[in-house]
Amino acid sequence: MAMGYSKEIIEAANRAMEQRRRQSITKAEQRRRSFFSRYPRALEIERELSRTAAKAAKAVLTGSNARLELERLKESNQALQSELAALLKSAGVSEDYLEIRYACPLCKDEGYVDGKMCSCMKQLLRDEAYQRLNALSPLSLSSFDTFSLDYYGEAPLKAGGIPPKKRMEDIYRYCKNYAANFDPQLSPSLLMQGATGLGKTHLSLAIARAAIGKGFGVIYCSAPNIIGKLEKERFRSARGSADESDVYLLECDLLILDDLGTEFPTSFSSSTIYNMINSRLMASRPTIISTNLTMRELEKQYSQRLVSRIMGNHVRLEFLGSDVRQKKRLIR
């Protein structure tokens, strides 16, 4: 998979690239038809140029007086090209007006150059991933700039405790630095814990936005949604459909597993969550988990084995404060 993107994202980007190429060709054909209708001589010149190319090939193959014939054809070709350029200039259009103007001249809207992915294809993949992440997230795609610390109190929630604003300033700085230096092979997995409405999803999506901007493949999913999707795939008659989702959840550069613990608890959900988290840890691929549950509640819902894997391999960020979403609604 390119840069850890899912099959669906790659297919969507390929369709967009093909559509881009068709549009470039169609627009060129429209320009040519319009120009030739106004300047019929231009069409005659193009046909004559094609004939000189065929004559040049024939001269090389026959070998008789080839050099003289090629010189004559070259002079004729140059004269025709000069005449065509003069027609284009008189019409007030550029010299490449009759040519296909690809959105990307480097790869000619094919997405690859000499077998390597072109930068325009990488951008299409980023755009598609960005769009899908935005569509799946419960918020519009968040950024660090839109995260406000003003909603967090400066007084400790309990005697001797740290003020929520101070804690959240530290978490904000950590997440921003994490995003700036994100590396799928080096960045650690994160566990964001805290009550509802404290900004866990916002900051995880802000990290995702930065990672996508760097060209990395990011998948966002809430625990209930991904469990529901995998369960439906598992029981479909089409063999192998579940494996495909398992693969792209494992292979993406960054997986964001939101709202862990809100899915309906079953043996299937517990084993799937464990396998998802454990497989990515074994492959050294970072995962950002957000949950409203405490460690004790996680252990009760899942298992001590899962909690042990999380605790031993995730940087724990404990969010403090009161529901920011409620405060925002009250202000409005």
TrEMBL record:
SMART domains: AAA. GO terms for biological process: DNA replication. Transmembrane segments: none annotated. Pfam families: IstB_IS21 (PF01695). InterPro entries: AAA+_ATPase, IstB_ATP-bd, P-loop_NTPase. Residues 63-90 form a coiled coil. This is DNA replication protein DnaC. The lineage of its organism: Bacteria, Bacillati, Bacillota, Clostridia, Eubacteriales.
